[in-house]
Amino acid sequence: MQFDPNHLSALAAVLRQGTFEAAAHSLCVTPSAVSQRIKALEERVGIALIKRGLPCTGTEAGLRLAKHAEDVAILEGQVSSALALDQNSQEAPPHLRIAVNADSLATWFISAMAATPGLLFDLVIDDQDHSTDWLKRGEVSAAVTSHSAPVTGCNAQPLGAMRYEASASPAFLQKWFGQGLTPEALAQAPCLVFNAKDALQQRWVQRQFGRQITAPCHFIPSTQGFADGAQAGLGWGMNPVQLIEPALNSGALVPLLPDSALEVDLTWQVSRVMASALAPLTKAVLSSAKQHLIQPLHRQG
Length: 301
Fold this sequence. Notes:
Elements: H1 5-17, H2 20-27, H3 31-45, E1 50-51, E2 57-58, H4 60-82, E3 95-100, H5 102-114, E4 120-125, H6 132-136, E5 142-145, E6 154-168, H7 170-177, H8 183-186, E7 191-193, H9 200-209, E8 217-219, H10 223-231, E9 237-240, H11 241-250, E10 254-255, E11 262-271, H12 279-292
């Protein structure tokens, strides 16, 4: 089935901007023209593509078509660049949707984005254990993930490991674990959890004590807020060493146990269809990861 590029760009603009008016402004057309294009596209495919509201959101089919439109724009841009076409074009760069975990975004991924001009990034923030789900659904073109096995239709390249330290403030450690770090004490001490998908704390407990422990939890869906909460004495949690190294050096944060850091392997997965067009980004991602993540020769143990 052939799709009108103007119809696809209208769909992508509405889902990206959230309203027909904002989409019309970005496309330099009237809201009526955007509405007509969306209606024509929905009639062509025979199903609804947009859920009207504030903001407008996409149906499953709408999200897939919008991503297809943005992927086509990236691929066309690659061809134009290779043939030295449209050097004076005033069109905005194409959008690229990527799934990345919050800790990577807060510590090393931004530098890879900054080293890749010519793209506008649309980031989906999700746990590294779940980011491949976005690739499987075809909703992103690439992802930072803890899964090393390639998703069907994707290339996978190892990035290195992010090191996490189970850490808390000295006052918190004294208050809750003054008599020793025991399973009983952990079951009472408040724990910091990023969100319901965050299993790092339980993974660390399982490794140290060979069992799962249910503890009262603060849910703090912010990497910096997570570290700040630990320093403020709200609870203990698994913090990226790269982020909290100054606090560890100053003593504002202390490990719950010595030599107990947890290392999480990360992998860069890219849709094979987009791999060539995204080669500069992949190069930047691998370079930044090499600088900031733990590489095999430097692994603990």
